[in-house]
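Materials and Methods. Structural model of Kelch domain containing 4. The 522-residue sequence of Kelch domain containing 4 from Pongo abelii was retrieved and submitted for structure prediction as follows.
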Amino acid sequence: MGKKGKKEKKGRGAEKTAAKMEKKVSKRSRKEEEDLEALIAHFQTLDAKRTQTVEAPCPPPSPRLNASLSVHPEKDELILFGGEYFNGQKTFLYNELYVYNIRKDTWTKVDIPSPPPRRCAHQAVVVPQGGGQLWVFGGEFASPNGEQFYHYKDLWVLHLATKTWEQVKSTGGPSGRSGHRMVAWKRQLILFGGFHESTRDYIYYNDVYTFNLDTFTWSKLSPSGTGPTPRSGCQMSVTPQGGIIIYGGYSKQRVKKDVDRGTRHSDMFLLKPEDGREDKWVWTRMNPSGVKPTPRSGFSAAMALNHQTLFFGGVCDEEEEESLAGEFFNDLYFYDATRNRWFEGQLKGPKSEKKKRRRGRKEESEGGSKLACGGAGTQGPVQVVKEVVAEDGTVVTIKQVLAAPGSAGQPRSEDEDSPEEAGSSAPGPCPRSNAMLAVKHGVLYVYGGMFEAGDRQVTLSDLHCLDLHRMEAWKALVEMDPETQEWLEETDSEEDSEEVEGAEGGDEDEDEDSREESGAED
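The predicted structure was written out as tokens:
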């Protein structure tokens, strides 16, 4: 009894601490969110000028990350919404809606009256009701300099049959956040985690909410058992048995004044109804077998064949007191909930060493590699290691591994009946984080994302696909050359803060002009 009482008391203490922190963050962030509300209102005024839905053929969308890519439930289409782009000086956010026709390999931009405000790091879930509905919750809006954030707590639905947006207002829902995860479960939406950040403070969540698609009401769940610690950017998927898997994610905590330490989570939990009751849920810690992904953040996930969860890419930042190094990935993993087992996804054909991209705060000196996006090197595996000292005295380690076709690959999965076996040297999406994934008819689609090369952030707009039935080779549907992307160096001038409208788009003409100048067409 003593241990149980102590544990329960500790749990209540943690809840009180979290409540105090949320109140503190809310108070400090209220002022900056009020500042951003005026900018958001300005863009909504521009959006309100649309009086009818206009669908127009268009080139592939501009580079972006943290958008949503969803599968139409009835048509051979992918739906891209929102996202962000940073050109070195200014942050752009989008609320554009694009439709990719899989069979025709064509893009269409769909302008619909009264859309949700511009955002990124939201969640979008498709359900089949009424000819198909795309539900969107939360996300964030950033100031042009990327230093202030507004976190949404609104819920929207796009009626795919009529191509109309509708804001669904219901009390009792989650607080404003981004980086959360949301899935469709029976006739409900279930939402977990995320974070809220202001200029000086932040808070991560591990709460669970459900939204009933019949009654349009929110409910907060209080599952029994020990669940995941607060985090954002995790994997959330529904199992064939009706449970919900939570894997990985990222969080950070303050270790001392102005010093934060990030945590890349690699634990897994199962959330399921207790005794078949939908009003009572329980957490269970999972320990899957097989070849597990290495710890990372910024990975992407999608439901694949046979109810398996597909896991792609991400980045591993090696944080130390005086240095920063990171590694981007383009590898594939599959989690089979039925067998509680991980499999490494490898393509058929000659084996090749997993391609990696290393990052640091400063680029390599003259003679360093260019911004290659795609295949491996041709001279055999070469690891380039450099240490440079930044202006603030920070030592940055920069490493890059170039692998030759036919070099040694990763170990195969033990189960011969898995489709994710055998090595591959086929070129595909370059290493990246925060990409968008979707699976339709057993084909995986990977769009956009980002990687870093020294101080430069490269935002991608390429589109690749992979037949998960065959697991043979990637196919590039839209290619891009990162070398052509404009990158503006930071400036100490105050002009950026004075050009708020131009930075985030201003009026529609300014918006188009600024993006054409930066090579990011709408």
